Amino acid sequence: MSTAQENLPQQPAAVLAEISEAIGLQEGAAGVRAVVWAFHQVGAASTREVSRRTGLPVPIAAAIGNELRRRGLLGRERPSRLTEAGTALLGERGAPPKVEVACAACAGTEITIPAKLREAVSRLADIAAEGPGADLALDQSHCTPETKVRRVLALLRAGVLPGNSLLLVGDDDLISLAVGVVGEVLGVRLTERLAVADISPEILEFISERATSLGVPVEVAEHDLREPLPVRLRHSFDAAMTDPPYTAEGAKLFLSRVIEGLRPGPAHNVFLSFGAKAPTEMLDVQRAITDLGLVTHGLIRNFNEYEGSGILGGTGFLQHLLTTDATAPLFFEGYQGPLYTRDKRGRQRQYICVSCEALIPVGAGARWNAVAELQQAGCPNCGKGPFRPGRLVEPAASGSEDAGADRDARQHD
Amino acid sequence: MSTAQENLPQQPAAVLAEISEAIGLQEGAAGVRAVVWAFHQVGAASTREVSRRTGLPVPIAAAIGNELRRRGLLGRERPSRLTEAGTALLGERGAPPKVEVACAACAGTEITIPAKLREAVSRLADIAAEGPGADLALDQSHCTPETKVRRVLALLRAGVLPGNSLLLVGDDDLISLAVGVVGEVLGVRLTERLAVADISPEILEFISERATSLGVPVEVAEHDLREPLPVRLRHSFDAAMTDPPYTAEGAKLFLSRVIEGLRPGPAHNVFLSFGAKAPTEMLDVQRAITDLGLVTHGLIRNFNEYEGSGILGGTGFLQHLLTTDATAPLFFEGYQGPLYTRDKRGRQRQYICVSCEALIPVGAGARWNAVAELQQAGCPNCGKGPFRPGRLVEPAASGSEDAGADRDARQHD
């Protein structure tokens, strides 16, 4: 059977494992299979949709798509469909059934925006367009106006609003203004006290100005969250919301500041927005959460949608946490360690310009720290783009061992 | 202002705190406020609906309702509405707006049952009616047929099905048969290998019989999960599902067995069903999860609905976990410690018979270990029921310090 067998198709398991190895995927063959399954469910799927469905970051989903295409398992048209050989990866007996199980009404986010709040969405889109841009060096990218409203609705659903006090630890997403706009549209003041601590004077100035014209007082504190909260914000709030840098250190630090701001005691609500990472990296984040004495009360994948198209656009989850009797901050003093993605990035990844096929390194020591910066600048060779992720390049001399740092292309504050 | 003030209504904050203290509520005034908010949102709400919305166990929601009624803040009609004084607890400016934010299509469970699977629900209802009853001593109560189908859909959504191997660690909920029925209705075999480990020969016999008539092979292993898995089930499965006893020890033990059964490596899917507990108790459960090297990929509240009406009926969450590089079981040897709720229960609670007002103690050292048993037996005084939760009684001589054990009235396997 030796020569004849060479012409037979490879076993699905072997193909999936091979692709997983080619891109060093932590999820292994199961992760590749999940991508194939997502393409099968959708029919013709964009990389972004595959990312949503699998929970894999957009650049990883794109890399898997490229490997499938190279092997003739996925079509080259965009959005792409599985070829017959690609569908065969899912089983020997032909295509399995398509069953759309995520709720179509809320896209699996548990929350729908009521008709009377569509106005709030469009007003927040206008406000965001006039506000400060995202600071890539601070891992920022902005969530969509729908996401802003959904976050306010999550606070209403939990009973945090109306009527309680709310602290926003970092607010480049302008959630304070979303609380104001939603309250105005509903005809009720939603918070007893609403405060924002943020490092950026531009963001705080913008929030103060707009909040005043909305008639919703927002207390702003210009503050580097590496330092403990100002005394006037400590031990005072019923609930808090944060969208920290997407590193375990970022989560631990920002949640420590959240806890400093909350009234002592159990059952206070905390909402954490965060981006998908490989399971082993997520373990550090979730250990940080339990180390802080916080418990998970809900976790909604793909709840947060961020601006930007293609590889830059992405989604993140909303984790609903509760304080317990054991809740305490982990950082009391000023924090000096790594915080943003670029502080931790140790490897470069080559990106391929779709227009001219140039290979451009991105990461520590390269001209661009993040693909977002490269996208903004355009290709150094032809001036255009967009860019597809290519191979990982050897660790830089600084030698971080953070194997998953390349997942952080669309990280933000 | 001394005498005049005595006739003024109490401040909302003081009332909420007083009620919280009266029942020793770990959630404090915020928990009571959440119950008031839930009544306000629904209009006329059953205790079960309030439990769903607040995440508080049914007996706790019932106790808070009783305290509100005693103070004239909640009506005595069932289902109950807030009185004017009750509504005033939510703010001084009258009733805040009602905003229905949980998705109406999926009730916030992220998953809807497609029309073509309604048949699977009714077939599973018939199967469950013919199957073994719930064993209260093993903390069992059965999930509804809709929940069985939703659990299979959660496996489909994650891409675990179709095509992979699945291990069920405990299966008194007959999820193995749900996999078979859903597959039959869809016209596809959903699993490559499907196995159940359970302590009950009756359940396994029932599963084997029905699986054979469905044409879906289910491998059954009669096994006490205190002991390591049989060798033939170890390191073999792509995914697993479990609904363990609702104690931190139960979660840790059953998840250890899950991990023994999974193929080594990261990104394997594990689905854990569990019941609401107070935040500080949940911290033990979630620490167990991170200690096992598992990460939370999703957590859907109220996903699981259990059979039984009134105080016995309840809901639980579905937690989607992933393995990581650090995943390892915590128990390798046979486990000898406490496991089921009654092993840990140290206090008794008085239940009040609604028919004859008799006070009946329930808990360790009492005639009934759990209110479910009392409900089955009927009131020892008048033979009827139903029962409302009353006061906690002093710790029994055995002296467990488990302050939240009284929350476990509807625990199950």
TrEMBL record, chains A, B:
Instruction: Indicate the segments forming the N(4)-bis(aminopropyl)spermidine synthase C-terminal domain, all copies.
Output: 120-325
Listed InterPro entries: BpsA_C, rRNA_MeTrfase/Polyamine_Synth, SAM-dependent_MTases_sf
Location of the region described as Disordered in the Swiss-Prot/TrEMBL record: 390-413
Q: Which residues form a coiled coil?
A: none
Ranges of Basic and acidic residues composition bias in the record: 404-413
Q: What is this protein called?
A: Bis-aminopropyl spermidine synthase family protein
**Originating organism:** Salinactinospora qingdaonensis
